[in-house]
Amino acid sequence: MSGETNIILTGETEHFYNYIIRRNALVKKELLKHAGWMQKVVLRLTAVAIIFICIGQSQAAEVCEATLDCPTNYATSSIDTLKLPPKIVALSNVFKHCSPTYFDESYVPGNVDTISLFFIIDHSGSMSEMDSTCTRYQLTANLIDSLKASSPVSEVGMVIFSNQLLHNAENDPYAVKLDPASSYTDAYIPLTQLNTTVGGQSASDYLKSVIALSSTERDIGFNRKLINSYYDNNGRHSGHAGFENSLTGYNGTTDITLAFDAARKAFQTAKNPRAKQYIIFLSDGEPQNVDLERKAFIDDYKSGTDLPATFTAFWVNKDQPIPDQIVEMTKNIQNNNYSASNKMSVVWKTQGNIEDLISKLLNVSTGRGFTKIPSIPQSMTINGISATKFDGDYAYFPNSFALKSPLTKFTVSFTYHYDSPMDIDSTKTFDILVKTDPNAKVPAEIATNCWEQGIIKFYVNNAEVPSMLTDDQKNIEIRYFPMTPMSQTSVQLKITNTAAGYKDSLTVTANKQSDYYTAIVTRETSNQSKVDNVLQTTVNDSVAAKYENPDFPLDIIRATRSIGAARNLGIVSASIFDQDADGFADLIKVTEATDQITSEELNQITPKLYFSGARSMKIVSASKTGAGFDLIVKVSDKEPNTATSADERLVIQNVPNLAAGGMFPAGSIVIADSMAPVIASANYLNGKSSGSVKDNDTLVVKFSEKADSVDVPAPFWLFDPVRQEKYSISLSTIASGDGITQRFIVTAVNVKTSVSRNDSIWINETASVNDMFNNVQNNQNNRRVTLQSQKIDYSFTVIAGPTPVNPKTYTIPNVIASQFNNGAVTSGVVIQIKSGEVVLPQDSISASITIYDQVGNAVVKDDKCAVTRENGKLLYIWNGVNRNGRYVGDGTYVAVITVTVSNGVSRTIKTKIGILYQ
What we know:
The structure is a single chain. This protein is mainly beta. Helix 4 runs parallel beside helix 8. The protein contains 10 helices and 64 strands. It starts with 5 loop residues before the first strand and ends with a strand. Strand 15 (197-198) and strand 16 (201-202) form a beta hairpin. Strands 5, 30, 31, 32, 33, 34, 35, 36, 37, 38 and 39 form an 11-stranded mixed beta sheet that branches. Strands 13-14-12-11-19-1-20-21 form an 8-stranded mixed beta sheet, sandwiched between helices. Strands 2, 3, 7, 10, 22, 23, 27 and 28 form an 8-stranded mixed beta sheet that branches.
């Protein structure tokens, strides 16, 4: 071949962390090359699950049919033993025959130019989706084999890259460090003559080992993990925003410049002239989020400086364009004068069709045309069983292939005939080893089609026993229910006991009855086995039934029932609580008898629990405790009630067939009171006044139940929502009454001067307020209520004087003027507003005044009146000036006063004012 050629496969790189979030694609195996031909195979695998039915359960398990890709992919020489979980029990009798395609290279050894070829392979996170079948690695291995066969003295090197080069000279002494003077780990595999050896193995085998992939493990970019590559710390810092201070290893981003730097350095030692040098670049992306120290070089690759001719095959969806950066790089390489061959550089767009790619790359690397020659299947045998026919892509066998534990070997012989011009038969023989491994998982590339399997149930006297057999149940019916109809009139069931030190077993015939198979098993208690038709069981034993599918040895269904004595179950006590102290029950704590139920059994009995009595209450949830269980309850009553009555009981109905065996008995029990009192309502009554003498105020508190006499000085807290102030009042008891309503004399208001309307009140949690059962209210967040006060329907009168008045000359007495606006108004007319009743301390009053002239114009608008030192009296002084600051004229004016009281009372009153200047 004349000319130097670089083949580049590139594509779009996305931010790795965003990519991981959106990734949900199955990774599929694709193509492998064996003995000079490529094949693409899908093998269909039928799977049936081993089913273990847990104690107390009778639900069907799932069985599956699974699909593998190609039998040669699982040949022992390729990926060693295939590990599958125990549920996979058979291979399907129908699968793709995988007849290969041959690439006629039409070469004679020595006629192909000797070349220097360097592979650049993208291993960024996005490649796990764009090249999910790992075509780029299979392609590289195929080209190495083809070049070795046609030109063994050619040399090949490579580099695998992401944000770093995935080679390390310390791990692989043959690798060459990119920058020996730096601490960065980046290294590449140098150009190596194919007919030489590396470390005791052929150069071609060594090169292929560099790109060897794990068959099961994925790296953090979701690519199949490279077995012999370096993923750890590279000595640089992360390029992701917010992580710049963190050292990084492989993170799935894309640094194209770094890869081309390695290629450029590798060609410095090339043995062949520039016209026989080229690169194959396999990628899907553009550079993004390179390491922090590499950001300045992120776009250097576009210049194409000092690089051979470049063929770019771009991994991209068919409707997407090739990025401008890749086009620009290719043009620059065409024109960089590296060699005359650089004009051959071109960009390809691909979706990873390996047959198309290998044709192009072989044509480029050898300068020749290649012909794809398909083949037609002639025969296939698996473990000596021959395919009955071939239909299109599929081979058909008479029956499925059963797996055995722990290892099954399948020997496959496949004969196929190549079309003209080859017109020859070829046979490939290989083994597939399948190992049943309890720790194995079905690989992501294996699709499954699942359905339900049958179940085994136990019956006594025609009633199902879902969990435990009692010791007196000697005759047991065992039924097998297949999920799909079976033609057999009977099946075999194996019955055993499970005691560790003593074993007995029976094989019984279960006869078909409608949609199930049934057999009666008789058991007795004994310490030794007997040769009879009776199953011997012992203390702490169980009965196990097993169905084994005769066609598939791993297809097993088991069910077990333990044998136990009767359990001492029941409710011993129940107590009701008000945990949040809002006056409504929210918890019932239940103490059980000696043998307690499980959480599963609690779910069984909860629907059978209910309450008697007047309280409207329902169960919200239930949970197990050390001594029994708790019931979270919800009360729908409107009034708080923390008392209980003798008719308030927890009742349970009979619950048979508990999960762990036995029956929960019916019964009822009185619910004990463990709720502390709260305040239901409170009224504040002002003492009567007679002149300067005033009676003490009174506090009347209604509790949520009968409470002991409260005899501490400050048993309650109060809160003023206006001043945001907590305070207390000192009390002495007048009368405890019935214990529910108690009256107190207020001897002092602490912190504040008086109790305000709409203040809230609650029990002081340190005052030991308790009910008749000594349930003390010690919750600091106990129920708060608004303190109710007397609401007086206040009335008000207004007088103005002197009137008529000359506002310029009449001087107001200082004792009055000083109470309004700090004495600023000394002349005019005085307007006084007076309450007809004594204003309570918790009530505040305010007033505003508007004065109108003879034609209805407001000369004063919404001025505020002053509250005087006298109870219930307000004051306003008008100096005769209008809102413009000028004295009004002679005439009669109307003052309209709006009085507002904090208890909600509002009054509007009027008076006339005469203005006369003399």
